[in-house]
Specification:
The structure is a single chain. The protein has 73 residues and is α+β, with helices and mostly antiparallel strands. It has one helix spanning 54-72, and strands at 2-7, 13-22, 25-34, 37-47. A 4-stranded antiparallel β-sheet has the order 1-2-3-4, covered by helices on one side. Strand 2 (13-22) and strand 3 (25-34) form a beta hairpin. It is elongated. The model has no long low-confidence stretch (mean pLDDT 94). This is TonB-dependent receptor. It comes from Dyella agri. Keywords: Receptor.
């Protein structure tokens, strides 16, 4: 399992974890906060990661965590 953190474009910080569910899929879960106050949690998956270098998986997960929160908040 790996951990990521960051800030979304709409001002929320997040902390998340992800792991390989199989050789071609990553699953993740993230907690979102604003000014330290809990605002929600989301989870998701990214398919088709078999040919993507491991060094780029963090960025893919961060992008998916961001788009999931910004799109639905």
């Amino acid at each position: 399992m790996a951990s990521v953190s960051g800030e979304t474009t709409n001002g929320f910080t997040y902390e998340g974890d992800y792991e390989n569910a199989n050789p071609d899929r990553v699953i993740w879960a993230a907690t979102y906060r604003r000014s330290g106050v809990f605002f929600g949690m989301r989870h998701g998956r990214i398919n088709g990661v078999h040919d993507i270098p491991a060094s780029e998986i963090d960025d893919l997960v961060k992008d998916d965590i961001e788009s999931t929160w910004v799109r639905f908040s």
